[in-house]
UPF0316 protein TSYNT_5374
Amino acid sequence: MLASIGGYLLIFLARVSDVSLSTVRTLMIVRGKGVIAGCIGFCEVIIYITALNKVVNSLDNPLNLLAYALGFATGNVVGSFIEEKLAIGLMTVQVITEREDLCLLIRNMNFGVTVLEGKGKEGPKKVLIVSLPRKDLDSLLKVIEENDNSAFVTVMDTRATKGGYFRRTIKEK
């Protein structure tokens, strides 16, 4: 009985691990980090085949399949959590606001801001474009919310940047 529980646990944990690694590997590919993605993929496939082998060799045991499926589902949740905590990469935030001083507040946070003049349905607007490390997104959104809760904000992944204030500040750190 204890050996069976250990087998189910092995299958479950292997699937949680390989699916979590798959999520991180995909993130690395999207971020242009192919070598890291390859190393993660190597580990991922070894774990995957180990779990799959355990299940395929015991197809008469539905609890193995249940452990496999639960591990897959849990791995998706864990992988998403890990991806969020790693916060790898860059973001571009576009803020449409009427507040003149919001740009200065964001610049005081040491973020580069490009300001464009815009025209909305209700008159002139400022369009602020901010590039920043993903890990700093929450602090930026908090400042925007505290100072202009009517601002229209869009957040986009940024694959790469070249030049500008953002690049200089990264090199200085």
